[in-house]
Inverse folding.
């Protein structure tokens, strides 16, 4: 259940004053919210309004520690997955992105070094890798797209804020979580090792990881049946900096691996894993689109309900069943693609698929099994079945009575 929060944030200054707070891995965050917030609530589970969003992550209440397995080209050590990012989801499979343009930085390494975090930077240089070799740009993207959307990292949450210290806390926490999630080791313990000949099942992979995080599943990412990403989901009691991360099930249907026949290729083996673009959000990385690839270039957004094509999306983002379909342009962006129509850029506004001037921040959509996905969730819905030229709003998620799928028809 999504958390109930006020429409305007009430962010109180908290008295910590630059304290260094120990984390489980022996590293430190720089400070921020106190170790013990007053009556901290678990994100994505509260039933009352929380005004102090320095002690409660909202609206991005579920945090995802995401990992890559790159083989073509290979990144990082041969016996370790690498870091993709740390992403806040809205507890329902959707997410915000690029939330504060005033805190977009192009000098992440320099920021980390300025706080004396040489060990952190060295670790990132080994385990937080861009497949194109441009780690710095990758880190900048992860912070600006995801870090700026985490409420407990806002400058107001620091009683004696030093510019950019929240950036260091973001990367430190992402690294500390990654260290606690040794995917390669956990898979190997169950006999799941990289191979050019072996194949595995989703159930086997989920069981191997659940043996170390009982009671919850993860999101698995595949490209053309090749295993290349894992997302570990958490709800948080308190702030990102000092709160308790509680393992949680995924907040939406996002896995892109088949149930059987999954390949887990070795690094440096000449494998053919499609190279991901950097990077993420609440979504699986995608390869550079080739001509004719779904959600590339120009096309229509057709609507299926009950497995049957029934109309299409028009330029403002609504659905109807007769008349001319709108032409959309899909352009690669980060880990997915942006959509635009004649009305302007497209996004999800108040839970509704929308194109036009009301979309202040376009989101990067992705494709899941060939279907349009927002926040990695390919479920869409409407309050009723469209008929004729009557326009019907389309909502992200499956919360409304008529379940929909949105598929691409290239032009």
């Amino acid at each position: 259940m999504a958390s109930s929060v006020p429409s305007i944030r009430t962010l109180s200054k908290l008295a910590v004053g630059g304290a260094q707070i120990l984390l489980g891995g022996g590293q430190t965050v720089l400070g921020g919210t106190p170790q013990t917030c007053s009556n901290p609530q678990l994100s994505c589970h509260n039933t009352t309004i929380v005004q102090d969003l320095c002690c409660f992550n909202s609206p991005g209440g579920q945090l995802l520690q995401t990992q890559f397995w790159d083989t073509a080209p290979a990144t990082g050590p041969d016996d370790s997955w690498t870091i993709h990012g740390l992403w806040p989801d809205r507890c329902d499979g959707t997410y915000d992105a690029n939330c504060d343009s005033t805190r977009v930085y192009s000098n992440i390494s320099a920021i980390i070094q300025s706080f004396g975090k040489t060990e952190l930077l060295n670790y990132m240089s080994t385990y937080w890798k861009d497949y194109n070799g441009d780690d710095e740009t990758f880190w900048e993207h992860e912070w600006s797209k995801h870090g700026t959307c985490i409420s407990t990292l806002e400058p107001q949450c620091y009683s004696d804020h030093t510019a950019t210290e929240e950036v260091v806390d973001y990367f430190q926490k992402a690294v500390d979580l990654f260290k606690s999630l040794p995917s390669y080791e956990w898979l190997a313990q169950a006999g799941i090792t990289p191979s050019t000949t072996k194949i595995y099942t989703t159930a086997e992979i989920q069981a191997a990881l659940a043996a170390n995080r009982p009671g919850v599943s993860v999101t698995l990412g595949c490209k053309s049946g090749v295993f290349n990403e894992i997302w570990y989901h958490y709800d948080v009691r308190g702030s990102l900096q000092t709160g308790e991360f509680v393992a949680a099930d995924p907040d939406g249907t996002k896995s892109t691996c088949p149930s059987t026949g999954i390949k887990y290729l070795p690094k440096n083996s000449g494998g053919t894993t499609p190279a991901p673009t950097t990077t993420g959000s609440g979504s699986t990385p995608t390869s550079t689109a080739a001509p004719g690839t779904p959600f590339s270039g120009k096309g229509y957004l057709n609507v299926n309900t009950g497995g049957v094509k029934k109309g299409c999306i028009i330029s403002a983002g609504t659905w109807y069943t007769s008349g001319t379909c709108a032409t959309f342009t899909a352009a690669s962006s980060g880990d997915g693609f942006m959509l635009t129509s004649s009305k302007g850029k497209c996004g999800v506004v108040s839970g509704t698929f929308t194109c036009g001037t009301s979309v202040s921040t376009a989101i990067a959509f992705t494709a899941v099994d060939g279907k349009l996905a927002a926040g990695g969730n390919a479920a869409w819905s409407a309050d009723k079945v469209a008929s004729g030229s009557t326009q019907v709003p389309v909502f992200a998620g499956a919360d409304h009575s008529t379940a929909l799928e949105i598929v691409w028809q290239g032009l």
Summary: Residues 297-410 form one domain. Residues 220 and 230 are 5 Å apart (CA to CA). Residues 1-28, 31-35, 270-292 have pLDDT under 50 and may be disordered. The chain has two domains: 21-247, 297-410.
